[in-house]
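Methods — Computational structure assignment.
A single polypeptide chain was analysed. Its primary sequence is given first, followed by the predicted tertiary structure written as structure tokens.
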Amino acid sequence: MNLAIAHDYLNQYGGAERVIEILHELYPDAPIYTSIYIPEKMPDSFRNMDIRISFMQKLPLIKKQFKYYLLLYPKAFESFNLEGYDIILSSSSAFAKGIIPGKGSCHICYCYTPTRFIWDYYNYVRKEKYLPIVFKLLPIAIKKLKIWDLKIINRINYFIAISDNIKEKIKRYYNRDSEVIYPPVDFNKFKVSDKIEDYFLIVSRLNSYKNIDLAVKTFSKLQINLKIVGEGPFRKELEKIASSCVEFQGKVSDEELVRLYGSCRALIFPGEEDFGIAPLEAQASGRPVIAYAKGGALETIVDGVTGLFFKENTVESMIEAVNNFIKIEDTFKQDTIRENALKFDKEIFKKNIDEFIKKRYQEFLENKKNQEKSFGENK
């Protein structure tokens, strides 16, 4: 079974890139096709992968201005020659699902979300600091990309959704069925600590739509220590509104990340996410999560057992949740929290993905054989 992987871009490290690492463990010989790759932004593990990049890699200022080349990403993935592969597994929240499979190839899409900046445009861009001309031109580009996004759906034989939340969106926007396979957490990588320190934690890409500014305002108002791990284009804006109790850690080593998870009072998960790996990494460390009660968090956090929810997207609602947490902080049991994360362990993910691919590929071959037989009979 000759398999290739396609991934949107490898220019920042987050939950989707953690999935790529584990897919590489499962399929170590599979090449990874992507639009752009910036090695210095990625962990060393990616240097051992067979990464094949598109023409976009050579574009001027691509490392810093990759968003301004928005309309070229579809062409980048359509330019790859994928002849000779039995299976194409696209790992996509945007463009990689638009690859053109080789003749006779089965295309399976592991979908993190229907393209967010197309289908949830307002929430995606409302906090961005683009030039006025960009805001005028962007809707025109988005309209073109929406047409493309719908056109390429027929290139996909099977969808896998990362959550029930995304399964519903795939049906709503693409009118396609999907099967849910939750993203993995490397359960054994994280440890329960017997020393809890006086800080709350955020682990996230620092993008505007992540809603991290809500947490920064909340903890600045409460004057409670908050550590933020991660990098991204919204960092400077966050630093402007942060008080001295908010500490930006930037990119940290794996060892330091494990320590920060294990020693925090709780993880703060302030945005509506499609799924969210960070809450599971925190729970694998035995730490509770305070999360916005929408999206994937509803599928991974047990209210009152492994964390607490806040219902409104406001500072007041988050303050209430943090204060409620402090009142019952000692009632959360680390072993119970960690056990909840075990259901999402990477070995379960590997098993589910591999079984799905083998099953659907056989189904694809049978359907192809029946179609050829029917065509021959009707000729």
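Note: The chain has two domains: 3-184+346-378, 188-342.
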